[in-house]
Amino acid sequence: MEQITVRFQPSGRQVRVALGTSIAEAARSAGIHINNLCGGEGVCGECRVRVIKGDYEMESSAESFFSDDELEQGYVLACQSKILGDIEIDIPLESTIEEAKILKDEIQEQAVHGLITENVSYPIKPLARKIYLELSPPTHDDNITDLERISRELRKKIGWHSYDISLDCLRTISTTLRESDWKITATVVKDKNRYRIQQVEPYNTVDKNFGIAVDVGTTTVVAQIVDLRTGEVIASEGVPNKQAQYGEDVISRMIFACQKDGLEPIHNAIIENINELIDMLINGKDIDRSHINAMVAAGNTTMSHLLLNLSPCSIRLEPYVPTADVYPQIYAKDLSININPGAIIEVIPSVASYVGGDIVAGVMVCGIPDNSEVQGLIDIGTNGEIAIGNEEWLVCCSASAGPAFEGGGTRCGMRATKGAIEKIEIRDGNVKYQTIGNASPRGICGSGLIDCIYELVKNGIIGSTGKFNRDLKDPRITYEDDIPQYIIAYGDETDSGDPIVITELDIDNLIKSKGAVFAAIKSLVDYIGLGFDQLERFYVAGGFGNYLNIRKAINIGLLPDIPEERIAFIGNSSLSGARMSLISEAAFEKCISIAKSMTNIELSVYQPFMDEYVAALFLPHTDKRLFPSVDY
Amino acid sequence: MEQITVRFQPSGRQVRVALGTSIAEAARSAGIHINNLCGGEGVCGECRVRVIKGDYEMESSAESFFSDDELEQGYVLACQSKILGDIEIDIPLESTIEEAKILKDEIQEQAVHGLITENVSYPIKPLARKIYLELSPPTHDDNITDLERISRELRKKIGWHSYDISLDCLRTISTTLRESDWKITATVVKDKNRYRIQQVEPYNTVDKNFGIAVDVGTTTVVAQIVDLRTGEVIASEGVPNKQAQYGEDVISRMIFACQKDGLEPIHNAIIENINELIDMLINGKDIDRSHINAMVAAGNTTMSHLLLNLSPCSIRLEPYVPTADVYPQIYAKDLSININPGAIIEVIPSVASYVGGDIVAGVMVCGIPDNSEVQGLIDIGTNGEIAIGNEEWLVCCSASAGPAFEGGGTRCGMRATKGAIEKIEIRDGNVKYQTIGNASPRGICGSGLIDCIYELVKNGIIGSTGKFNRDLKDPRITYEDDIPQYIIAYGDETDSGDPIVITELDIDNLIKSKGAVFAAIKSLVDYIGLGFDQLERFYVAGGFGNYLNIRKAINIGLLPDIPEERIAFIGNSSLSGARMSLISEAAFEKCISIAKSMTNIELSVYQPFMDEYVAALFLPHTDKRLFPSVDY
């Protein structure tokens, strides 16, 4: 069949497809997301694109979505239009908005369908399993103990283990068995190589078994409630980390915690966070908190320590030693988490003081140790944590990125929540932007800031050093105390009435952040003697929001300049990893083996890192040969 | 060398020894205890015996212990007298008193010297071990976590295990390590196949590691405090079980516990008992209760359930099913035991509803499963529990003996404490008795009651049915409401001023008790198809006191009529087993394997038991052929 070439703007990406393919199909082949709410039925009108040049044919029923003017300009619905020859197509910002939602949904899909990521799959076998048992009542010939009777049936159903039991649970079984006619549901948990009966309930309650996955971020704490029977995510919520009142970043919180009586309040703050999230997650739903039987938390090493009320003091001081990297399994009551008091809590193990369970969870989610190809993961939060490896080896490092990409440290930065500008395009002096939830803009989140820097440098508004071109006569450029700033949204467009701007200082902060991240990636790749081109896959995770424009992230020198299709934004992989661990024993055990096998490179004592950092404080980089594809 | 014959009275036992052997030595050869406080130095004067006929030579220095009259009558010190030909010797009651103390000491000896009983030895490796570690401080090249640093050193010292840690302990290690210059003492406990770091203390505290062994008896609760480093018993104490206020015997306590809100007070009572015992044990000693790191309790199945606050209700009802037979390891704080809150508590596992951890502990102590010969153990408390077996098989049963042998259910019965008459001899209408602690008599304990019945029947005061010979004119026989009773101690001899008597009703109760015990032994032996003569060794344990006259116990038909030297009284083997388990992991693990492998024969549904019981309600038995050696 005849092949024709399709070129998409503004990315410039090209793809070869068969003649007669739909534009939507061609975009999918090119790896470009176009909204697809109705599943290609031509009824939602969300996949509007504009044919710049070339032949096409659109179903006539789709014409009703457009004005005559628009039809004349070449606007079509991508799903209803066939390509009839080489063609160039512009995809407006608004037609890719839905991507955010899709990314979230994809993660949910993974959970439902046996936890499949691109490279790895785990069976659903939650950390707290409920097993329904119908026992035969005791007789003179079969008068084993109540506990042994339950264990015997469990062995038949889930394996020949020796079943431990908690004293609290043991105290209930005699009555429960006899009052429920020997029909019970046992909640079984695993702690390393041992199984424990954690709860015995009357009759069949297997459909009431929930778990909480938590990403304990320095800036944001995100949690999900999951149906442990199906793996389905029921709800997700995020709140700012209440520890911020004791210090904005990890270091200042450690300093606070190490003062006299400092640990308790900072520990309590994160417990309050989690309890608040749990309240939000179950609010309005038919879920009793006593049916929440497990929780898995992932976070950086300091956050994990503070969650468990462990002193973080030695993490901060040379030679950077944490109290522990693998944490004991504990009960909800030990941490005053308001779920079933006997629910188990697992914290994803860390690797080192500055490589935490969040990156371990991410490495597990990406399946890096399950593949022969070399793959990398960078998780950009307040710290940038990087892991590279394959089935034979794993190395990692971390660098302080600052809070810029999470919305901190910039004038109008904000977390990726409703009203955050997450996409920006500047063309011909006009600014187009997209906010999360289509709300009035309230600020700019990480992905918006990346777009912003790229758009500013591409349009010549700032130079490679991040300084404004003061010769420009652009009404969006204003000055405050002689510091230039660029207006992304005028006051009449915003929620507060104040304009949303990005200042030269903001840009300076952002360049430092991206410089640190890139220098860390470069140092690690150099350390192991690889070139960027040997990274077959590079995963990007972080709290940018639900969206990241990878091309623009390369263009500002944040990510290495490798073929775009090798890079995948995977959202909050710390949360995904916590959730997968909650739902699959094997996934949690994989996290433990990752944490134990990963080698940490301490950049603070690795000489070349500082040089790399300085070299990276330009857009895209002082050494442009590292970014051959960058077009400005 | 010429052998001569020595005959001892009142037992009539004979032994052949070399000419020139000391009387003390000859008595030892015959298995007869004579006091030996000074170790045979001739200075304590406690081994007074009387030579009835035959030649002997006493060191002249020993003469100062006797009046001329006494010397004339043949009184000598056994340790200072050589036998010069066939001889007959009378051993007065007072010269064997010390036996009680000796039995206690022997048990202590076992504990100190690697826990050697007659048949079995275990290495000292307590359930909570303290290990002193001098760690190298972390460096950049050696910056493993604090926990891993401790674990690494533990692996060098005590084995390549994966060390778990409790959260409470984990919270302390960062500070402790740094404040004690990396010199610490780790308390390590084992829970099934896993090791856990339970406590980390600054500097070297290995000499401060104590444990509590408890025998939770229905009538009496006895505890010892043990130095876990050496195995040495530091103190022993006993108190009446406070649960008695809710019911005298096991059944009535179960009934109480199964009423609404009945379990809690009966559970609290035993916790109060143990806390009171601990107070007594450490009183006046340089022992901090925070250094008590482990406790092992043994008791019958109901006592074990009540200790753990487990419902005993199904134990009482057909088909007699306990909640559990193997109990989880728990912490002292879980039971509000006033020792180190993180101290571990283990309860010796049970076999069935009426065969508890007390008998399991005893079987372990006797080494029954470690020998090819068939051996038996009977533990006579409120219940009589019997186990028989060898290295290939173990069977057990139990029968209600009533509280008579523990001092309950008889007019002047009492526990084996100070002032209890523990030995009685009646000769020519005179009563000689010995009290515990040489105190004024307050009552009669189990061993005294056994002596008493034997002496009464031997002297023709009662007949084989236990009824008094009403034709006798003996001033010690009096009547109350036409029920005859025999005065053991007149009012002017006793502590209270009231006479101490044994009534016909008491004797009737005691015969029922001994009948039940013997019937149980006989039933079990018959069940497995053995004869009594095939019992190579028969151990007798129980709360009689520290002493039991085995010959008299056979003579009243309580114990089977096998050669006396095959029977050994081993005191409180439940307590010994708890203590051995506390001091030796291997001993505790042996208890678990015993509990799992022992087959329980339920006598309540075993038809022949009732017939055996009725046949045993005589002195010594309706079938005198079963007791060929009995001399009345």
Brief account:
The structure is a homodimer of 632-residue chains. With 632 residues, chain A is α/β, with parallel strands linked by helices. Helix content of chain A is 29%, strand content 26%.
Task: Explain what the structure shows.
The structure is a homodimer of 632-residue chains. Among the domains of chain A are: 3-96, Beta-grasp domain (Ubiquitin-like (UB roll)); 128-202, Ubiquitin-like (UB roll) (Roll), CATH 3.10.20; 210-347, Nucleotidyltransferase, domain 5, CATH 3.30.420; 404-510, no CATH class. Helix content of chain A is 29%, strand content 26%. The first copy, chain A, contains 17 helices and 27 strands. In chain A, the strands form six sheets. Chain A has a six-stranded mixed sheet, sandwiched between helices. In chain A, strands 26-25-16-17-18-27 form a six-stranded mixed sheet. A five-stranded mixed sheet of chain A has the order 2-1-5-3-4. Chains A and B meet through helix 4 and helix 5 of A and helix 4 and helix 5 of B.
